[in-house]
Every structure is written in C-alpha cells, then in structure tokens.
Amino acid sequence: MSPEDRLRDALRAQVDTVEVTPDALPRIRGRIQERRRGGGWAVIAAGAAVAAVIALAVVVFVPERVPPDRATDRPPGTSVTQEPVEPSAPATTAVPVVPGEPAKMQLPVYYARNDRLVREFHELPLPVDDDAHRIEASVTEALRAGSAADPDYETLWPDSVTVRGVTVEGRVVVVDLTDVGTVPRAGTPALAVQQLVSTVAAAASYTSVKRIDGVRITVGGAPVARLWDAVDTSRPVKQLHPSEIYAPMWVIDPQEGQQVGRSFTVHLAGIVWEGTANLRVRGAGGEVVVEQVVRLSVGAPAVGEARVPLTLPPGRYTVEAYYISQADSSVQGVDDHGFTVG
Q1: CATH class of the domain comprising 249-341
Q2: Would you call 23 exposed, middle or buried from its count of C-beta atoms within 10 A (0-12, 13-18, 19+)?
Q3: What is the pLDDT of residues 2-58, one digit of tens each?
Q4: pTM score, two decimals?
Q5: What is the DSSP letter of 4?
C-alpha cells in the first residue's frame, strides 16, 4: 500500500469516529456572531470550525450508486441529447502524395455488423480534392457492396444504388442517389440511412465543414419524402447519438489485414458500462496469447477509447474487443480484426 493510500485510510478512520449533529453548523455560526467583538482570532477559530464541519460533511458523503446505463440495451427510438462524437482515426491515415497521380486520402466509411454501425478507413482516389468530393468518395465506398475490408462488415444498401453527386450547402450536405431499390438489405431502412448519414458526418470532419447539421437525400435530383416508404427524408436527416447506432465495441487499430511491427498499439473504442472493456489476442491456431480488462476513457452512453501497447513475435493474429454482460456474464459485442506481426 502506498503512503497516499495509508494516509487516506487513516483520515477516513478518523472521520468515521466523528459524529456531526444536525444543528452543529447553525450553532457554530451563532457563536461567530456572538464573538465578533472578541477579536480576529476568535473569528478565525470559529471559521476554522465551520470549515472543519463542511469538510467532514464532504468526506463522509457517499453518493448513491447509479444503476448501469447499458447503452446497447436502450429501447429503439430512445433519444439521447448529447452531441455525436466521432471516435479517433487509426494511426495509419496519412497517404503520401505521388506527383503526377490523382490525389488519394484515407477517409472514414461506415458499415453494419449485427444491426449496428462500425467504421473502417479506406484509401480513396479524389478526382478533385475538395469538400464535396471527399464526402462523395466516402459515401460511394460505403454504399458499394463488398467494399469492406472486414468480411464481417457489410453495406445495408441494395446493389443497384449509385451516388450521382454531393453538394455542400453550409452545414447541410445533399447526397443525390439513383436506383435505391424498393428495400434495403436485411430490412433495416432506418439503420441504412444512418449508415449513409454517419459516413457523411465522419467524412465532413476531414473537410472545412467539420460538423454537419444534417443530410438531405435526393433521388435522381428530386426530393423524396419517404425513402423506401419507411424513413422520413422530407427534411435533412440528422445523425443519431452513437449509443443508438454504433456497435458497442470495435477495433480501430490494427485495421483488418494490416501488418504491424513487433511492438504496436491496439486502439479500441466502445460504448459500455463504466468504460469496462476486454481485449483478447489469438494466435494463428486460435490459442489466446493476450487477455486483459481494458478501461476506456469514458463509459456509456459516450464513446470511450483506449490504446494498449503490445509486443508479440512475428506471426498471424486476431485481435478481439468485447464486453462482459452485466446480466449473465456472457461475452457480448465482439469485434475482431485479423492482422500480421512482421
């Protein structure tokens, strides 16, 4: 036990022996008034007594434990007022400029896994490097079937959909589509729209726009009141709070298929109770080589993050992020990436 811990325990033990009556503070204040004519030292002593009572009250106060707010269990449609917060980017988002070749940029792309959204960063070509084309590149990639690097991720949009163009109108982004089909994949129209909106919002953070107020979706250049006759698109669609749409856990680094050095950092993000997550790394044969509890920067309903340095011998590995259910201690929200240590 450290000296600080011993001092804290000793102070707490002393506090536990003190009983403060309910009328202690009023009586002390009364004595102060009576002794004001008695000189400065009496007032100072009485003031010190007041401070001691207040300090004791603060020390012995123990807030009632708040029951866990498991954001992943929030009923659909429940509104959360906090501003959406985009998790940090991977460490490998810089793309070198090659003279004579079109500009390329690592841009965020959202997909779905188990009816929740997850994110990858893809190196995408930019015929013109401006705000609208950066957002358009991300959205086009997000809606393209089979574009995810992680085989567990997928787009919710039908194969027929294409992006005709993107325009930026202040802090509202207009995405014009064609061939949206009659239904999205997996029958999840609301989440499909949020996949698009989240991709736009994330890509906008890599432009001069930074933060958007909403996404106006048009089809064939014309407004559409209800997309797939299921989602209200008569006005700009806002991004929902991450706790309503993001996966409870995901791996940011290493990215799927990435090769890293022997010493590297695992970067996790999650929306879990008290920010308590779990990290596990398996070898090529499935054996567990690393397993530990990880404390994220913040708990649900906010997006927390953690960076865990590791050193492993060369080989093929799978990193897993997950959380333990408070209800039955089962493993939940697993996200995994395969990677290689070179």
Answers
A1: mainly beta
A2: exposed
A3: 544 554 555 455 444 444 444 444 454 555 455 444 444 343 334 434 334 333 333
A4: 0.74
A5: H
Paired tokens of 271? 């929306």
Measured in degrees and rounded to the nearest 5, phi and psi for residue 309 equal: -75, 135
Reading the block at residue 59, the tokens are 């020390």
User: How far apart (Å, rounded) are the C-alpha atoms in residues 236 and 171?
Assistant: 10
Q: Is the dihedral of CA 187, 112, 76, 193 positive or negative?
A: negative
Strand, helix or coil for residue 307: strand
Give the DSSP H or E segment for 269. Answer: strand 263-270
Instruction: State yes or no: pLDDT of 80 exceeds 80.
Output: no
**Confidence tier at 96 by pLDDT (50, 70, 90):** low
Q: Look up residue 196 and give its two tokens.
A: 């698009």
Q: E strand or H helix at 11, and its extent?
A: helix 3-16
Cα–Cα distance, 190 to 56 (Å, whole number): 53
Domain boundaries, the chain: 3-60, 83-240, 249-341
